[in-house]
Amino acid sequence: MNHRSWGKPKRTSVKIMTAVSAGFLASAVLAGTATAASPAPNAADTAPAASASVRCYMHQTIGVYCGFYRGTDQSDFGDSGPKVKEIQALLLDTGYSVGPKGIDGYFGKDTRSAGKAFQAKNKLAADGIVGPKTWSALRMA
């Protein structure tokens, strides 16, 4: 059974983890256990705002939609723009990492690797090119 409901956004684990972390931090500050000597988080530990705020949902006509692109035109390594952001959001939504920058709109090596892994798992040609068959699988995953 599909874990998404029609028209209702799916919560992502990134938002839940962020809320839990914020809750622990607030508790520590209120309890006086936080210290000034705590190291500041580095850039690799913090998710980009775009990644954390994307909510994909089941659209009635196209399937899963994350708000960037509704089409099925081919995309591959080196492409950029809203189409790539949609691919990255869909891959993240299905549990694949698209690299440390998250949803940046650039189809680089991390997005290609995630795409190949998704294609292999879904018995598609694992070439890293997102064409109509891969779009369909991503939209229904």
Automatic annotation (TrEMBL):
It comes from Streptomyces stramineus. InterPro entries: Peptidoglycan-bd-like (IPR002477), PGBD-like_sf (IPR036365), PGBDSf (IPR036366). Residues 1-36 form the signal peptide. This is Peptidoglycan binding-like domain-containing protein. Residues 80-138 form the Peptidoglycan binding-like domain. SUPFAM superfamilies: PGBD-like (SSF47090). Keywords: Signal.
